[in-house]
Automatic annotation (TrEMBL):
GO molecular function annotation: endo-1,4-beta-xylanase activity
Enzymatic class: hydrolase
Record domain GH10: where: 220-540
Protein's name according to its UniProt entry: Endo-1,4-beta-xylanase A
Highest taxon, organism lineage: Bacteria
Annotated keywords: Carbohydrate metabolism, Glycosidase, Hydrolase, Polysaccharide degradation, Xylan degradation
GO biological process: xylan catabolic process
Source organism (scientific name): Pseudobythopirellula maris
EC number assigned by the record: 3.2.1.8
Amino acid sequence: MRSWTMRLGLAAVLLGGAISQTHGQTLDGDELAHRSGGYDAGAVRWTLDKNGYVGTYFTLDEAGPVTIKVDALGTTNDATLPMMGIAVADQLATFEVGTSLAEYGQSYELPAGTYFVRTELSNHSGPGSRTLSVDGLTIEGASSISNTSNRTVNEANALAMADSYIENFRQGSATAALPGAAPGSNVTVRMRRNEFNFGTYVTGFSADPWVGDLSPGETATDRARYQEFVPQYFNMLVPSNMGKWQPTENSEGSPQMGNVDAILDFAADHNMAFRQHNLAWGHQQPWWVNNLIDDALAGDPQAKADLRQAVIDRIAYYVGDGDNDQHDGDRARQYEELDVINELLREKTYYDIFGDQGVAEIYKLTKDAVDAAGADTLLMTNEYNLFNFAGNPLTGGSDHYANWYREHIETLNNQGFGQVVTGVGIQAQTNPAPDGSPTSGQNHNPSRMNQVLQNMSILGMPITLTEFSVPSEAFGVETTPERAAEVYTETLRMMFGTAQARSMLIWEEWPPNSTNQTTIVDENWDLTVVGEAFVALMEQWTTDEQLLTVGPDGMIEIAGFYGEYEVVIDGETFVIDHLKGVETHSLVTADFLPGDFNTDGVVDAADFTVWRDSLGQTGLIAYSGADSNGDGEVTLADYDYWVSNFGMSLSTPQTSAPEPGSVVLFAWSLFISAPRGQRRKWRPACVSARL
C-alpha cells in the first residue's frame, strides 16, 4: 500500500505521475517504474537476483535535507551479505543487508533540482550468489516524486536531472590564499580547461593533414583551420585509425608509432588530454595477425599461443617500458584512457579465441605495463548499441538497461586477476529518427540513456561516451539540422550531467572530408545549426574570466566549473586544479615574507602577537595567517621564521629559518602567560562520494 502526506497548493511538481508531499511517500518495491532486472516476489516485494537497481525521480523545490529509506532484506549462499547502495547525484551510501526485513536509510543535503535515486545491488565479488529484495522506498523531504513508465515524462525527467547535476555538482567554489600579496591587489582568474573531457578524433591514417607543423603564413588551409578550431572547443583527442594494429605494426616486429606521437605532441602543446584507440580489435589488423586469428579460430593451439605472444609484444611498445622503443613509457603516461580490446562482444574474434579468462589476462598484462610505466591510464572496454538497441550480443535478447555489458565487465574483473577493467566505454552512433517513426522504439532517448548510465554506474568506474555521431539519414528518415542539434545537445547534457561520466568524444568528419547538416562545421568551416548549438553549450560550461581583489586576509574566492585555471597577480601566473572536494589552494607570491604574519610588509613585534594568538591552530590554508612553512599549522617552527626575519621588509633579503634555540624558550615563556585563541576547521560527516 502507498502512504504519503499531501501538501495543498504546491506549485512545483514533476511532469505527469508526480505526487506532491512534505513528510514522505513510500513506494512499494514492485511499484518502482525503473528496474534493471529481477522479478516480482509477491505482495509488495521486488527482488534483484543479480546486480542491478530499482529507482525513481524526485524534485526538490528548495535546498534542504532529503532522507531516503529502503525496506529491504537479502539472501546469501555464503558468509558475505549482499551489499546495497542508495545513490543520489554523486553521493553513495552503502549497507550490508541482513536476511531479515529491516529499514536502511540515509540523509542527503541537496540543492534544489531534479534527482534520480538508485537503490542498487552490487556484488563485486561475483554475480548470482546473493539477492536483494526491496519492499518499499520512502523519500522524505522531496517536493514531488515522479514514478512512471511514460517515455515523454521520463525523457523530461532525465534531462532535468542532468541539468540539475551540471548546475550543482559540476561546479563549485574554493578559497585561494596568496601569501605575500597585498590586500586590494588585482587578480585575474581564467579557465584553461574543463575537468570533463570534451573530445574529438583525428581521422585517417596520417597525422600530418591535421596536426602537422604549419608553414609560415599558413592560415586558410583545412589543417590550419582544424588546429585553430579544435583546441578552442575540445580538450581531448583520439586517433580514429592511427592507433590501431595494422597502421602501427603492419610488418611484424617493426612498430611505427610516429603518427600517434604526432597527435600526442599536439595534444600536449595545446593542453589537451589524449585517448588511445585501440590495442586490439577484430578489424584493421596486420595480415600476419589475421593469419594467426584464422588458424586460432580453426582450433590450432600453436596459433593461439603465437597470437597471445603477439599481443604481449604489442603491449610492450604500445604501453609499457622495457623494449627498444625509448618513448613508450612517456607515451603511456599521456594516455588518459585506452581501449584495450575494442568491441569484444559484438566483434567476437578475441572472445571466441581466448574466452573470459584469456581476455582478462590481456587486460592484466596491459595493466602491468601501465603500472610499470608509472601511468594511471584507464583500461576500458568499448561497445556499441547500448543506448539505442541494447540487444544482448550473446543471446540476442532485448535489454534496455544493457545488463549484458555490465555483467561482461564484472566477469572480466572476477577472473582472479583483480580489477583489470577500470573504465566503461560506450559508443553512440545514434538513431536520430523522430518519435513516431518506424524505429522510434530504438531511437535517441535520454530516458533510456539514463537507464543504461545508472546501470553502468553500479560498477563504480568512470564512464566515457567514446564515439558519438548523428547520421544524416537513419532507416530511411533524413535527419533535419534541428533534430541533429537536439540530439547533440541532449546527449551532451546527459553525459555531463551524469556523476560517473568523465569524457565524451565526437566521432565525425572535418573538412575537407565529407560534412553535412549533422556535423559541427560545413565545408567552409562555418558553424552549422548543430555547431551553433554545440558551441553554445561549450561556452555555457566555460567559466568567464574573473577579476578579483585580494581581501584583507590575503584570500580570494574562486568559483566556476571544475577544471584547470590560471591565476594572474602582479605579473605572476599560477596554474591550479579547481576540483570537487578541494576547498583551498595556496599560491605563494614573490612578495611572500616569512614571519610577516599580518602582511604589512615588515616583520616586527606586531607579527609576534599574531603568532602568539594563533599558536596551535590547525587545518589552515597553507601559508595563511601565522603559518610560514606551509604545513597548515601554527607551531614553534613558524616562530623561528619570525625570529630569523625580524626587522626585515620586502625590500631587504630574507634568511632561512634557524634551528630553535634559547630565543624560542624565551618566546615560549611569553606565550604561556599570554591570552591565546584556537580555531579548528570542522568538517561534518558526509556520505562517501564515488567519482
